[in-house]
Structures are given as structure tokens and as C-alpha cells.
Amino acid sequence: MLTSELKSKIDALWQTFWANGMSNHIVAIEHMSYLIFMKRLEDLENDRIIAAKRTGKKYSSVFDGKEEMRWSIWQNYEGEKMLKHVTEKIFPFIKNMRGEESYFTEQMKNANFEIKSASLLQGAVNMIESMRITQQNQDVQGDIYEHLLSKLEQAGLNGQFRTPRHIIRMMVELLDPKLYQKICDPACGSAGFLINAYQHILKEYTSEDLIEYDEEKVPHHLIGDKLTEKERLFLIKDQFYGFEFDNTMVRIATMNMILHGFEEPNIRNQDTLNKSFKEKEKYHVVFANPPFAGNVNKSEISDNFEIITTKTELLFLELFYNLLMKGGQAAVIVPDGALTSVSTAHVNIRQMMLENCRVDAIVSMPSGVFKPYTGVSTSVILFTKGEKTKDIWFYRMENDGYALDEKRIKIEKNDIPDIIEKFKKREISEKSWIVTFDEIKNNDWNISASRYRPYVKVEVKHEDPKKIMNEILKLEDDIDIKLKELKDILKNA
């Protein structure tokens, strides 16, 4: 989460963008990503050079013979010189640094550097330098994206809003992906799920004494020192796949993954609901929080879908199922309406999932999780393809560690550790319960947690009946005495 000081800096920078004519928020986000990429590229190259020297290996840096491309060289240029240097040299350099045949170069082909103001560029560079972005706080890029995206008036209308990183980490922890499992996010945004799944696996192969944890218990220094060369190559080349229909977000996701060690990220510009998308039964694991709101043009919908609907929330649910190979697992976020609506298409997709998948768990999240973008209620569904559901473990999350209002400040109440712990044993508690397949079937395949929440039993402490009777008799004696005294008073009056 961003500090209030850093939020103020970003807001001030945005005002500068606005004043200089860059009023499109997504363009602003994209260009901040370019600049962060430029800075982090030098930091990562320096780390790789040092690592190569330690191991005695040869390493060819992208900066060999091009020292003027280093952030540390040009960040102190005066305004006009910096703007000319970045526009004419740095930006073309990063667009083509992977070679003409690379997918990154292909994605960057139509990208343009649209900052035209020297003062705007210099202000952005100074702000990014002051953030001290390192391997230990690399989530700052995503947090900047989140804060800027909160300004988009249409964020809650088109369903495009960033998944909080602590929710992503919870979902990854629950599913516990492993090395050699092919992992996909069919609506990857800035690649948050893919990067966190990568870090989860990397942690398993990093010596414990090398790992450091921040105040939120997030691990850092995940170097994967226990990985063989074969394992490392699979991890960074063949394990992770992301698809995104927005080309700007494809570039942001690609840069984000490169900054996390992926030389050629498998991020593709693709509408996964469209006829042109042909992949099926290819992945072991699917993570997703796609833009559910809205409808798709019927003529453009993929032929792979059996459920007749144009609603994206239902098409994506079937897509997750289609992408998984038998035995594959998914952890995905859905709006609660998908779990409760009684329309034919809604009921059919839920029936299909429960009869063809083992729905392992549904975690109901409070409506404030996605504020300030939207207050819509959502749930996390975890399922395994290829087995019929016998029963479902439900958990009703009440707190996620942050206030459920617009400010989302950190608080002590947090159900996430309890969710992770109880999920492993499918433990029943005041916030978790199990519901059978037959009960769900008899309720129009409704799989909302609130529909089946047990009544909370309230224990009432009862006194000993003899003690109660003695107190009643004593009370009666006292009343008789008072009445007698009152009669005597009235008699003598």
C-alpha cells in the first residue's frame, strides 16, 4: 500500500500531467511504467553483472557499449536535454532491446513516447527516483497503477480494476502452485497473479536464511538458489502465460514481468472470449479476476462455449473450465450475482461446474475489498476440473486487513490467515461451514455463502432451578409482608 506522502507525490505529478495536456489516465499510467522500467532495467542489469562476476560466468549486458542509456547517466540532465535524450535515444532503445524477432519488440512497435514537456518528464523522473524502488518494494509499480486507476470514472463500469495484492497472495497461497505446472491468467491486466505465483514457487526453492519478510509478512530476496538450471529455465520461459485484450496493458504487463526476471514473457494481446482464441485444456492452473461487467457481441463469441449467453461473467467461468486440463485447478474471483442469479444461463453454468468439477471452496469477500473502484460483492471460487462436487467448504470473510471504506487504511482485523489455515483442513467454525451437493442442487444450484450460513448458536447460561424457585418463594414472602404492613397502616389511619 502507498503511504500518504507517496500518494500526495503521485497526485501532484498527475496534476502536472493534466496541466501539460496528458489528460488520459491510462496513457499516464503507461508512461510512468516506461519510466519505472527504464530505472529498474539498470538496477537489474547491475545485479546480473555482479552475480555473473561472483560465479565466473560471462554476461553480456544490454548496456554494453551504450552507457548513455543508463538511468544514472541521464537522470540528472537538464530538462530539454533529458527530453531529447529520452525521446530520441532511450525510448527507441527499450523498444528494440530484445531484438527484432522478440514478442516484446512486436508489442512495443506501435508505442509512442508522448511526454512533450521537459518539466513534466523531469518531475516524473525525480519522483520515481525519490520512491527508492528496489527488489524489496517492487510492488510500488502496481500500487501506483492502483492509485491512478482509482481516478478513472469508468473503472467500476467496465470492470477494469486492479486486484489488491494481498487478495492475490491469498488466492495463490490457497491453490499452492508448483514448479512444472503451466499457469495461465486469461485476463492478466498488469500480470499480478502471474508474478505472485512465480514468487510463491521461487520461495519454495530459496534457502530460508536468505529470505527476509516485511511488516506484512511478504517474503523478499527470493533468488531460487535451490533451482537447477533446467528448473529455472522452465520457470521463466515455459510456466507462465497471460492474455489481455488491451494493448496498453499488454505492454505494462510485459514490462512488469521483465522487471521480475522474465526475458521473454508469454504475454499476448488477445481477447480470450473471441472466436480467434483457440486454446483449450492446456493449463494446470488458472488464476483470474477478469472484467466481468458487460456483454459480448454474439457474433464474436468463441465456438468453444456451450452455455448460450453474451454475459462476460458467465463466459469467463466457462473459459476457466475450458482452459484447464483434467485435474487442473483454478482460483478465480466472480461477482456474487454469478452465484445467485436464477436466469437459465446462470443456473446452467453453475450446474455444469458442480457436475464436472470439484468445487473445493468459496470464500465470500466483503463488498469493500475493491473500494474505491466499486462496492460490488465478490467471492473467490477454487475448483478442480474432472471430478463431481460432493460438498463445498464456505468461508465468510469479514475483514481483509484493511478498512472497508474509501480510504482502505491498514487495520488489525484480518481473516486471511484464518482462511488459509482452515482451508487446508476444511475446518468448520463460526465463519466457515460445509454444504452438500444435494442441498445446493435443491436450491437452484445457488452457491452463495450467505444462502447456507448456519444460524449462530447463542449459549444461554441457566441458573440452578432450585435456586430460582427459592428466589421466587422469597420474593412472594416479601410481597406478603409488605401487603400486611400496608393493611395495618390503612387500618390504623
Oligomer: single chain
Shape field: globular
- Count the E strands: 13
First-to-last CA distance: 82 Å
Domain count, please report it: 3
CATH class of the largest domain: Alpha Beta
Q: Write out the CATH superfamily name of the largest domain.
A: Vaccinia Virus protein VP39
| CATH fold label of the largest domain | Rossmann fold
- Fraction of residues in H or I helices: 40-55%
Overall pLDDT, averaged? 86
Instruction: Give unreliable regions as ranges.
Output: 153-159
With strands numbered from the N-terminus, the spatial order across the biggest sheet is 5-4-1-6-7-9-8-10-13
Helix segment count? 17
Largest sheet: 9 strands, mixed
Which structural class do you get from the secondary structure elements? Answer: alpha/beta
- Series of secondary-structure elements, N-terminal to C-terminal: HHHHHHHHEHEEHEHEEHEHHEEEEEHEHH
Radius of gyration: 29 Å
Percent strand: 5-15%
- Which CATH architecture of the largest domain is right? 3-Layer(aba) Sandwich
